[in-house]
Each structure stands twice: as C-alpha cells, then as structure tokens.
Amino acid sequence: MQPSNRSITLLNRWHLRRVADASSKACMICFKPTTSVLITADNKDFFYVCNGHLTDRAFCSPLVDAEAVRRKEAALEAVREKEKAVETQRVIKEWAEKQRRKEEKKKTEEEGEGKEADAKEKEKAKEKEKEKDKSAESESTKSVPAAVEENSKAAVDEEPRIFLLHKTFHQMRIDRLRNAEWAKRNRDRVRDPATFPSVPLADP
To answer: What strands lie across the sheet with 60-62, from one edge to the other?
Structure first.
C-alpha cells in the first residue's frame, strides 16, 4: 500500500539553531558533521545542515528581518555621526590652537626684546599643552575605529535566523513526514488484533 495523499501542513519557515559540538550530527545534504539545525517554529520537523548550504540559494533563502535591518542601519548611522563629531572637534581644536599661537606671537612681539626669556618659557609651556591636546585627541579618535569594529561584529552576529527552503527540499520534508506517519499506522495495524480475521470456530 502507498502513503495516502492526505495533506500534511508544514509551514516553510525554518529557524536556525546551534547545538554543542558534542551534539553535532550529519548534514542532510553532504553528511558531514554540523552543529547547525533548521527547525520549524512548532518543532514538527528539524534537520541538520552545514553553514555553507545556508548560503546556497538553490537550497534555501534567508527571510529578511526588517527590524534587524533597521537596527543595523541605525548602528551604522550612529557610528557615522560619531565620526563626524570627532572630526569636527579636531578641526575646532586645531583652529583654536592656531589662533592662540597667533595671539601669543603677536603679544610677544609687542612686549619687545626685553621679555624674550619669558616668551621662551611661555612657548615651552604652550608646547607641553599642545602635546597634551594631541594625546587627548589621539585617544578620542581611537574610539571611532573601535566602534566601527564593534558594529562589524554586531553585523556578523545578526546573521539570518529564519530561512525558506527551496520548494523541492520543502516537499522532501513533507514526504518524509507523510511516510513516517504511514509507517506508524502500519505498525499500529500489525499490533491491533482486530486487524486480522479470527480463526473459524465452526466445522468446515
């Protein structure tokens, strides 16, 4: 007897889950050990699959999460705004430093030759202050690449979590469930005494 054509509902929405290395099993496609599992939301069906197959559009397609995309774009925009703020602050500091040096030079020239020694002391103090400003600026600019790197890691973490199987593979999963259900029915029939005819009690 062949499996019935009774419809089996299996939503084509597969959630990606990870298991421990010790729990890895053979991939459904290539039979290599993998820790990645695709499972339906109702836990009706699941199978192991390698990460490489998840990027194969002939096998499955990621279901775009609009909220995740929005969060990623917002994070990138925040990084860009921070870069602009740091750059603006740097330009303002450079302009202020130039203006201060210009004013000090002008003031020194007006005070005359008699105060040359004091001018040199001020110049030394100014150079020390300038070094401090450079150091502070360097620390602030270091935070921008760190933020960019942090955001890149977040983008990696936000890999697709829900997939749609290609219709051929989805149908394979449905057929597997149907065959399993039919096999269970057959086992139940064999165990049920009422399935078989009873021994005749009357003489022939």
So the answer is: 46-48, 36-40, 14-18, 162-165, 60-62
